Fold this protein.
Amino acid sequence: MIDPKKIEEIARQIGAAIPPKMREMADDVESKVKQVLQQKLSQLEFVSREEFDVQTQVLAKTRAKLDELERRVAELSAGNGSAD
């Protein structure tokens, strides 16, 4: 297995070998990509984790009520069926 410290050292050496103008260009590209991503993500309609959790709880309660109503309807249907 390759030593992670050795990999870091190699990456550091490669980074040091890159000419300064190339590093500036890479930094500029990274900055522009971050800017575009932030802009596009802000246009999407995301919900917060808190809102998602609240809606998950509401859905679970609604599902439990639906299950209970289905059970009661089945009981009532069974009761009417035996009276025939």
